[in-house]
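Slides due. Your pick:
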Amino acid sequence: MRFNFDLSEPSTDSRLSLTPKEEVEWVPLQKHPVFSAPDAVRNGGGKFNGAPKNLVAWDGASRLYYWDQNAQCLHRISVRLGEPDPTSILAAFPSKVMRADVKLNFEVSRISINRNGSALLLIGSDGLCVMYLYGRTCSSDNKTIICRTVSVGSQIYFSSSNVIRTLQVSWHPYSDTHLGILSSDSVFRLFNLASDVMQPEQEYYLQPVEPGRYRNAASICPVDFSFGGDHLWDRFSVFVLFSDGSIYILCPVVPFGSVYKWESILEIYNDAQTFGLRSVNSLAVRNSSLAISWLEATFPEVAQETIDEGDPPALKAHPHALFDSSVSLQGPLRKICHGGEDESLAVRGAECEGRAVSFLYNLVSKDSIVVTSWSGGQLQIDALADEIQPVWTVNIPPRLCVDSQDRIRGLAMICEPISGELPVVKLDQPLDHTVWLGHPPPLLRLATVDLALPKNTESGSIITMSIDPLMQERIYVVHDGGIDSVVLHFLPFTSQTRGKDETNRSPSVHPVLNTCQGETSSPSPLCGFVSLSDSFGYSWIVGVTSTQECVVIEMKTWNLLLPVQIDSEKKSVDLGAKKERDTPDIISKELLSGPKVILLPQASPNLRSVAADSIEGRSTLHQYFNLFQENYVEYAHKVHFELKHHAPQLKQIIDDQHARLSEAQNKILKVEERQSRLEERIDHAVQQHNILEQRLQHLRNLPGAHKKPLSGAEHALKAELDHFEGVELDALHSSIEALRARLRRLTQSPEGSPGNQQRQTLGKNYVQDAQISQLRSLMEKLSLVNSENLKKVKLVESALKKQESSRY
């Protein structure tokens, strides 16, 4: 029996193929024909519309995906990392071309692939689709792969009667089918693509400010979010960043059917029983009891403890929600206070220029790092000084959707902060004052990094961040001018565990790629960026410019975290030895000191009367002649040899001195030639200075030139009005439009929609009155917020009109 195997498209690329369809050529990735853009694209196709783009994705193994904006197709490129040398990457040519089975009516600005590489997101400002990379069919030319593509949440975000915008879209790290979306209506939604791509599985309505306690518009406008990492309750947390820089936490948020490690769930379960139930504080006992009941219902195996040794060490999350409580919105996170620090400085505020634009969560060993980027080009790097714990708000029941067997299919809840002022957390507080009391974890400021970006844009810099997959301490910052690398050297818990004392060592910032052609040229942002790594410890970054040019850079990792040690004493000794060693010895010191002093033999008193031709005279002359020959003649021979040996070296030194002399003379001649022109320029500058002084005197004589300068209060009012005009006015308009859209959806939603017919709500006839009253209270809250926003807008507009009238 003979079997025919087709290995033309294996999961991992290989050169061997029993039935090859076409020859594959391996070329350097930066020279791949996909990145060879035509002249039309290079001249005008690289325009930047102000939104961050990333059209490159990596599946974590051997496939690189690139979305071609002009051809409206996806290229799947097989790569070989570190071949033929560690600094390069080879790519297979031709690449696989993948197209959607439906026409896309929006421009793709970012792509993202899930964990197992089976689905890829196509994200745009006017649309969101998921492309399934497997289970596809080929086109007629047998070269293009047609992939099934479906739209996600089109009825909520992209309908004609809706103004809700998607702010951030991200895959959940513990599920291949769940998608998190943060929108401009301050709602965080979780979609399960395996069950329903139109309606969300979970909805969390974020209300960071209670009605009647309104601060500013930027505090209620979300910007970005990030899922937590594989650490205690962080894996069930969602971090939300608002425009004023405040950070909030939702915990617990678990996708239905997601998989977690058995050891991780057991660790937090035992922690809640040990430090929560046995606490003397009643509040800690109540919070830990809620957490334990939620864990036992979400993961029933934890309470039963019936897992066998042969079973896989993983647990699947069951759908569950507390019927009388909603998840609390923890925050805003405060900076930790030291012993003598003022408590008023503990509240986290906008300490940088502009507004917050992006957020990054990074788990490095035992430290949870959060990074906030601002439009002014600054980065705020903080570490969580305490562990995250789940917090619920009692007496605010969620809205559940169940099937005919009373199984939860979806949920929605309003998330509010805990009412009342939270105490300021200090370093010297005991453990009983912070554990399981419902306090959000404080922030320990590690550094504030200024990237020194050019301030040539009205809306500020657009910054995105990503983590190096090989070295978690390194963060890549992609901005308008290129790419920078930020390496963290001090981590509070990790450094303490490893015994390192690097408290005063700040992060190091290294420019990696500069996309500005010159100081006066406008920046050319990248339209694609991804970080690659292999199992041998090598790391690369791949960037695609707006003109479709690919850049591959190898990143060094082995010496970045080594401590810097400088021995000043040894350095000075080495410099002195080097200086002595570099000074050439033209003539030795022995020769410069002259011939050696010799002792003459003892002469007889009658030596002068001795004849030279006598035997005694001849003996004396012979003795003196030998002494002269041994000392003076040999010294003369040594001097002659030294001078003859060093003649070429002396000639070279003299020639160098003559060359330097001639060069100096030429420079003097050039300076003399330029002196006349410098004198003319100085005279011209003096004339211009006199003209400017005359114009300044004329301007001083104008009637409006003697106005009084603004006082301190007027300067503060002007700064507040500028802040309203730059940040909060747009935030007010967007929040008002979002509230109007939500109100329109609540008042005009059809009662007999297909989605509502397929689901049965948990409430029965006897709770309809309670639901109606709850809906009325919500409407009253919305109307109150809307009226406050309108008053604020009118106040700002009147202030702006007064300011404009005062100018004229």
